[in-house]
Amino acid sequence: MALIILVTTLVIILAVLSTGYHMLVKGAERQLRNQQSIITARAAEQVAQLLALRANTLAHIGVQLSSGQQLHPVPTLKQELARQRQINGFSMFPDGIIVLDNKGIARAESVYVPQRIGTDYGQRAHVQQALQTGQVTMSQPVIGLRTGQPLMNMVQPILSDEGEVLGLLMGIITLRDGSLLPEQSVRQARREGISFKIIDTHNQLYIYDGAHQGVMTQLESLPTPLADPLVDAAFSGFSNGITDSQPNAWLYANARLDALNWVFISAVPYSHALAPAKAFFIRFAGISLGLGAILSALAFWLVWLAIRPLDRMTQQIRTMSHQVQASRPQETVRLSEQGVTEVASLAQAFNQLTDERQALSELKDDFIAVISHELRTPLTSINGALKLTHLGHGGPLPKKAAELTALALRNGERLQLLINDLLDFNKLSKGKMSLTPVRIDIAELVAQTINSNQPMAMQHQVQLCQDNVESLLIYQDPLRLRQVLDNLVSNAIKYSPAHGQVNIKATKTNDHQVRITVSDQGAGISNEFAPFIFERFAQAEHGNMRAQQGTGLGLTICKNLVSLMQGEIGFYNAEGAHFWVDLPLNMAAQLNQETLP
Known about the structure:
The strands form four sheets. Strands 1, 2, 3, 4, 5 and 6 form a six-stranded antiparallel beta sheet that branches. Strands 9-8-7-12-11-10 form a six-stranded antiparallel beta sheet. It has twelve helices and 19 strands. Helix 6 packs parallel to helix 7. The chain is an alpha+beta fold and about 600 residues long. The radius of gyration is 59 Å and the shape is rod-shaped.
């Protein structure tokens, strides 16, 4: 659930970031395009207004230079130009005005230039066009002889009352800021780092190139196609867009002034244009990912709180299963019935199941204890009567009757052992088994074990031997230790081959511990059965062990008794099964942390 929440949160954040980035980029592009479009439109409008003002100025002056039928004489023209210069200073044409007759020959000028009076301008295209159409015309850009700078001529016809061309006024316009070029747009472009260009598409010339950062001193032809992406954009027919030149793409806009065939281009580098949007996006992404991490951690914590009872249930089930396998008393742990509704309901059902299981387990244990106890009393009497009868205290028995009596006595004693095992197992399961430790000699205890199991060994044609049994004093419960040894020895006898040998060995492993080992010469413990050998009823559930007699509780009881005596039990295979028991020499010293006298 936490992983699903985390992945879902991440996908949502990435989707939001992707959408946000796309919207930011498109919004930034749209804003910058509009900004560049405003710059170019304003520049074209400024130039158009400057042209209109200059045309009006020339028209006003032209009226003063004729009588309506013909031009004034040259002296009068000079006087009129001087008078007009004094009145308005020719602010629209600071570089001069020239008066031409109807042939295109210069007759007067406002600014003296040597050898200009008398020059024939009639062969120039813009002068011929003005003479023929009677309308204002503009020349192509040229380099002025006097200024050495690019300039243009505006030609205004001087018309008679009947509309005939009496002469021409030619105003000289230098291509510099404030004269004809859009001063505000140029300054804004320089201030904001915008690339601003003006090109003459008719004459294929640069009118203004912002790369020079100043007034152009010569006319430059346009580069070849694909050399300058902004020039190519001016001829593309699109008013704005993004150039295809990567990685140095430009976001541009252009505007056209048809009167001069000029195109105004304003552009910014695409990477520079998107820098603010990217910076904002990075901040936004950082905040989003931070919030996503916090939300994911919070969601994980909430899910963890919700499923924590499930983990406790799983742990409790494993503990209960382990207690059942180990035949230990079961400790009931109830779960909290709070939290998420579904989990609380599951905890309630689990607690109910645990209570029922505990009650059933107690009922079963009580039933086994009662039945075993009730069976043991009459069975003791039966076995006693059979033993007396078998020994002939009631008179001699026929041979067949003696055999049947012996058979009944053996099975009665076996049933007595089974009942005792059940009672011992029940006490161990409930933790009610108690020990009575005393000083005993290991060698003497081993000898007693061999003597008591000798009849069974003879019956199975197995030899019992002591192997390096040291005379060691140990403080343990002799009855329960004998029970462990008897169980191990009887198992070794049962699983030894005929004429085999069972060895009992007891040695001191260190200053505080003794090891007792019971070895047989059988097939050993199979790998499949090894993990279950100390589990209850294991004999009746695994492999060929089923063929042997017994309840399958013997080794389980041994393990619990050894644990109760503060020892350990185990086995290994080496040409037979070898069961070992490690016991402390002084159990009370381990329990009470003191040395007994």
